[in-house]
Amino acid sequence: MRKTVTGIALAAAAALLLTGCGSDDGAKGDGSGAERAGDKAAASQSPSPEAAESDAAAKTKGTHEVTLEVGGTGKVSVMYNAASSGFEEQSLPWTLTETVELTAAEQKVGYLVTAVPGSITAADGLLQQAPCVIKVDGKKVADNDAGKNPKGCTYTIKG
How many C-alpha atoms does 105 have within 13 Å on its Cβ side? Predict the structure, then answer.
C-alpha cells in the first residue's frame, strides 16, 4: 500500500514538473526576453479580414439561445441541461433561457439539451409528466406531447 501511494505521489510530482517545463512565454530561458524566430514570424502576420469574418461566423454558428419551458400549475421537480444543469423544484409555469456556446467538437457531434419535469395532476385526475418544450434560437425543436411522453424533452444541437 505504501509503495502504491509513494508511486502515485512520484508520478504526480513528475507530471507537475514536466508541465512546468513546457510553459514558454515566448521568452528565452536566459531572462533577456528576446523572442524566438518562429514567434516573431507569427507575430508579424496579421489575419486577413476574410479570416477574421470566418472566425466570427464560426463563433456565431456555435452560439445558440436555448429556452426550456415546463407548463402546468403548482410545483414540480425539473431536471435540466442547457448551458447549466440542475435538478430543482420549480413553480409552474417555468422557463429558463440560456446561451449555449458549442465547441468545434460539439458542433460536429452535437450537444444534448434536456428538460425532464416531474409529475402533475392531469385533467382526468391521474398523474402525468408536466408538459415541456425546448426551443433553439426561437424555434420549437422538441416537446413531450403535452406530458403524454414520459421521457421528457431532449434535443441534440449541432452546428
Answer: 0
